[in-house]
Amino acid sequence: MITAWLAAFALTQLVEVPIYTWALGDGARRLPARLALAFAASCPTHPFVFLVLPRLWPGSYAGYVAAAEAVAVLVEAAWLRHLRVGRPLGLSVLANGASTLVGWACRAALGWP
Predict the structure, then answer these.
(1) Which of 6-10, 18-22, 27-31 has the lowest mean pLDDT?
(2) For 46-70, what is the mean pLDDT?
(3) What is the SS3 assignment for 58?
(4) What is the pTM assigned to this prediction?
(5) Residue 44 DSSP label
(6) Residue 23: its pLDDT value, please?
(7) Is 50 exposed, middle or buried (0-12, 13-18, 19+ CB in 10 A)?
(8) Can you tell me whether residue 73 is helix, strand or coil?
(9) How far apart are CA 59 and CA 10, in angstroms?
(10) Other C-beta atoms within 10 Å of 45: how many?
(11) With 90 as the cut, is the pLDDT of residue 58 above it?
């Protein structure tokens, strides 16, 4: 389970960090700081939605995915708002939507993660 989570987390970061780094590029922060802040966005949400929520979710897989993405979007949008990023909800939807689609595509094409 942990190996599967690490693979999914790495893929999520590969997709979301560039989006969040771009969003944080207001000129006031240097690239290393933007990368660290972008990486931190999904650090609290990903383990929760991958390792904890499935054990708590009583409903269907589709319902679980919807709930998991909603949690991730809202928490990451709050993080972006805290960092004073414009349009935090839209950026969080973009980043999480992109990583979800890439994850589904990789699973369909490669059986991974």
Answers:
(1) 27-31
(2) 93
(3) coil
(4) 0.91
(5) T
(6) 93
(7) buried
(8) helix
(9) 27
(10) 22
(11) yes
End-to-end CA distance of the chain: 11
Please tell me the distance from the alpha carbon of residue 109 to that of residue 38, in angstroms, as a whole number.
Answer: 27
Q: In this structure, are residues 83 and 38 in contact, taking their beta carbons and an 8 Å threshold?
A: no
For the beta carbon of residue 92, count every other beta carbon within 10 angstroms: 29
Evaluate whether 106 touches 11 at the Cβ level (below 8 Å): yes
Token readout for 74 is: 């809202």
Show the tokens assigned to 51: 């390792």
Return the beta strands (E) in the chain as ranges.
Answer: none
The span from the CA of 2 to the CA of 50, in Å, is 10
Tokens 């369909």, located at residue: 108
Pair 91, 20: CB distance under 8 Å: yes
Task: Determine the Cα–Cα distance for residues 55 and 107; give it in Å rounded to an integer.
Answer: 21
Task: Supply the DSSP symbol for 29.
Answer: S
Match 């054990």 to its residue by tokens. 55
- Indicate the domain borders of the chain: 2-110
Q: Which residue do the tokens 């319902």 mark?
A: 63
- Residue pair 8/65 in contact (Cβ under 8 Å)? The answer is no
